[in-house]
Amino acid sequence: MSTLTTHYSLVKPNGAAGGDLINIGDLNGDMDTIDTQMFNNAQNIATNTTNINNQTATINAQDTRITTLEGQDGLVIDLSTGSTVNPGTASLSDTGLTMQVTANKYEIDLYFEASATAGWQVQFAFVYPAASSFVSMVGNSFDISSMVASSPASGAGNYVFTPGASGKIYHFKVIAVFTAAGTFKLRYGNVTTGAGNFGYGSNKYMTSKRYA
Amino acid sequence: MSTATAHYGFVKPDPSDFEDVSIIDQNMDSIDTALWINAQNETSNENAHTTNANNVASHGTRITNLEGKDTLTRKGVVTNRLNTSALAADPQLTFNAIASALYKVTFLLNFKSSTSSTVQIGFSLPTIARKSALTPDGTSDPNNNGWQLAVNPITSGAVAYTHVLETTYKVIPISVFLQTIAGQSGAFTLLWSGNNGANSIDLDAESYLLVERVI
Question: Which region, left, alpha or beta, applies to residue A164 given φ > 0 means left and ψ of -120 to 50 means alpha?
Answer without folding.
Answer: left
